[in-house]
Design the sequence.
């Protein structure tokens, strides 16, 4: 379900000309050599930071002050730091500790709560920084190394595992995630997930604790990270403008299953509209519950991920053409994409 993010926090230090370096290719044909785990740690760990925020929480009508911990990593020598938006949400102050013992109070450049990505700025120069890899080249089963600040008291903790799966879709995020069995715990959020070249290929984000909603059966070894390729345009947008605007359709959709399509009276293949938000782009375009979307601007749509990917390639305000089936009737509609903020 697409939801508009909460009100933005005050942001500073936007840089309209900012651009990250091109993603570094990971295949060994380009002269790269795989590293041992100690070599990966030596390369990346100095640029991974522990984050501590001062947050005021209202509980039962009373205000209390809490210190919330998380992780992040430096992406440029002049001090841009990437983390999860939920790590710094509602923070009155944000401090980072480096591996070498230095500590800084940072400024919030901007935050995208919908994608769960935030950028901070350290006022310093010549800082260690990570290299960004190419998450599109990941293979299931390859090495994955996580570095972060679990519990808020164990900064610089290294855990290892593998890439367990790719393109995992979860209701908590619009981005298809990397699944890994590298151990993550509270405080790891926002930290670096690294490949065998010591490059960041993901931002550690979520851990599944229970097998199902309402279940008390705990499970192990299922954690998720935001792919760096998906994060890069958001990071660049935040540094340039202080925010990232997502194109929005304002609908909830589900992939049509071939085995159920006939019984449900739905066209196959496609994605079926489950709900339409009042006043949204989808509502204004005339979409209705039960409509099956089959193309988005001429591109075939068979899964919810495909629809999300095509939508996210566009910008808010773009006019797009969508083909739908309403029962057995094929229709073409135009939609002006909405904005997340």
Sequence:
């Amino acid at each position: 379900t697409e939801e508009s993010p909460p009100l933005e926090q005050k942001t500073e230090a936007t840089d309209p000309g900012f651009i990250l370096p091109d993603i570094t290719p990971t295949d060994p044909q380009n002269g790269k050599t795989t590293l041992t785990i100690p070599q990966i740690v030596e390369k990346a760990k100095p640029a991974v930071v522990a984050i501590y925020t001062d947050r005021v929480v209202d509980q039962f009508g009373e205000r209390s002050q809490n210190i919330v911990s998380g992780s992040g990593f430096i992406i440029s020598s002049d001090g841009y730091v990437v983390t999860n938006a939920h790590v710094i949400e509602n923070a009155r102050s944000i401090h980072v500790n480096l591996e070498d013992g230095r500590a800084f109070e940072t400024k919030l450049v901007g935050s995208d709560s919908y994608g769960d990505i935030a950028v901070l700025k350290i006022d310093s120069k010549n800082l260690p920084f990570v290299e960004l890899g190419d998450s599109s080249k990941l293979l299931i089963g390859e090495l994955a190394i996580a570095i972060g600040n679990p519990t808020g008291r164990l900064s610089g903790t290294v855990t290892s595992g593998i890439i367990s799966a790719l393109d995992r879709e979860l209701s908590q995020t619009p981005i298809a995630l990397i699944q890994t069995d590298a151990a993550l715990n509270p405080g790891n959020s926002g930290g670096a997930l690294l490949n065998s070249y010591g490059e960041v290929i993901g931002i550690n984000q979520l851990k599944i604790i229970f097998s199902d909603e309402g279940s008390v059966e705990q499970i192990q070894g299922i954690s998720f990270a935001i792919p760096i390729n998906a994060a890069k345009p958001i990071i660049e947008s935040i540094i340039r403008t202080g925010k990232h605007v997502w194109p929005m359709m304002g609908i909830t959709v589900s992939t049509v299953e071939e085995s159920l399509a006939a019984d449900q009276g739905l066209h196959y293949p496609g994605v079926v509209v489950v709900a339409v938000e009042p006043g949204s782009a989808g509502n204004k375009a005339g979409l209705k519950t039960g409509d099956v979307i089959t193309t988005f601007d001429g591109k075939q749509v068979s899964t919810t991920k495909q629809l999300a990917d095509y939508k996210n390639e566009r910008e808010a305000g773009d006019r797009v053409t969508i083909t739908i089936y309403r029962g057995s009737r094929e229709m073409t509609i135009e939609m002006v994409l909405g904005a997340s903020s």
About this structure: Residues 135-229 form a domain with the Thrombin, subunit H fold (CATH 2.40.10.10).
